[in-house]
Structures are given as structure tokens and as C-alpha cells.
Write a structure and sequence with these properties.
The structure is a single chain. By secondary structure, the protein is of the alpha/beta class. Helices cover about 15% and strands about 10% of the residues. The protein has four helices and nine strands. A nine-stranded parallel β-sheet has the order 1-2-3-4-5-6-7-8-9. The longest helix is centred in the last third of the chain and has 20 residues, at about 240-260. The protein is elongated and about 65 Å long. About 30% of the residues are buried.
Length: about 270
Amino acid sequence: GALRPLAGRLLPPSIMGNSPTKLSQRLERAEKTGVLALRDCGLEKVPDRVVSVAGLRVLDMSHNKLTSLPSSLSRLEGLKDLSLDANKLASLPAQICMLPRLETLSAPSNDLTSLPGAIGSLVKLRKLVLTGNRLTALPDSLCACSSLQLLDASRNRLAALPEALGQLGSLVELTLAENCLSAVPASTGSLRRLKDLDLRGNPLEGLPAGLLTDTPLQHLQLDERLLAKDGSLREDVEGREAYAARRKARIDKELHGKATGGDVNFSS
């Protein structure tokens, strides 16, 4: 009844991903490709060697057990895409704001209670996904992210938004569903590129008129309390006519495109 050696047995994926040999192989490949995938590797901390990968552009550490990130992450000056989905992060280090080329920051399904105060330094940031955290506020400096096109902060605990949110001049899609918002800043009327806005699951009492009259908003999702029985905006919502006319024009154009065989896409 001698014990059989382990050599021939398959190791669980988490151990495979965390083994020094496997990690070394991925790091060597990343040196050549600029892409490092450490997704679902059972990581409890970021391996020291990660920040030494020269020319790293994409880093995916989603679905691990990370509780913190090292300040040395700022050494990855060429990083464009950072994915941290489904970890156990309670905060992000201030040094993450020192990544000058960062375009995508994805950190949904963590335990984040706040964002670094200097996040506005990320002037090339285009996509910020924070769904399913514990955020109670967004820092005012976020409004300095002039390249931001998509912001998803749904399923958090936001009670208010930065008053200067309207400074996000590149913003196209804003998702704030399932928070604690009772109002939206009047400055959102200055969002000259905003097309999609999701505000469902908030105790909103109204909307700024400028949001409906002065933006190119085409797709607005709200709870029933602000809607009439036919699903349109309530009559007492100021600016509803402008939004309804713009929405009708979009639908008519879409129908015309289909009728003439054209391919009309309004999401960009």
C-alpha cells in the first residue's frame, strides 16, 4: 500500500496558475507581447516581478483574492488597461494615479469604499468600471478626467455626485443604477456627448432640465415614479418635450435605415 507519487496527478487550476514555473512562463511571454493575464490564479498578493515587466500594456488580475495593490504599480508607466474585477480590494493605492497612459480601469465586484483623491490625474482614462462596490462618494477630481467616455458606478452606495460632473466633456455612457441618489447635478446639462444614462434604482425626485434639453441624450432609464403610464416621462418633468422629440427622431432614423437596408448604429 505504498503512496503513489504526485507527479502524474493534475493540480487544481489555482495552484497551476500560482506555481513559480507557470508564473515565470507568463512573465516571459508578457515581456514579448506587453500583455499579462493572471486571471483566476488564486493570487493573494501581486507577485513582485509583475512591476518589472518592461513595456507592459495590459494587466488582467481579475478573479483572484487580492486585498491590496503595491505602490510599486506606478512603475508600469506604459500600462493602458488594468483589470481587477472580482477581488477583495478595499482601496486602490494613490500611485495608481501615476499611470500616465492608463485608458481602462476595471474594478467591479470588490470592496472599494473610496477612490484615490488624485484620480483626476488620469487624463487619458476612457473607461472606468466600478460596479458592485461600497462607494459612498466619487472624488471631485474625477471631473478632471477629460477623456472619460464610459463611467459605470452602478450598485454602490452613492448618495450624491460631484457638482462639477458636467466637466466630463467626453462622457458618452453614464451608469448609476442602484445607488442612493436623490438628485443629479445641474451641471450634467453640459455633458455635450452624453447618449446613454441609467438612473434606475435611485430615490430621484426629479431631473435637471438641462440634462434633457441641452445634451444629445438618446437612451434614458428611470424608475416608474418619474414615468407616465405609457412609459414616457411625466408631464411635470421639465425638458421632457425636447427629449421625446430627440428620441422620436432617432427611432425614425433607425427605422428608415432598416427600411433602406442601411446599417445605423447609435451607440458610438
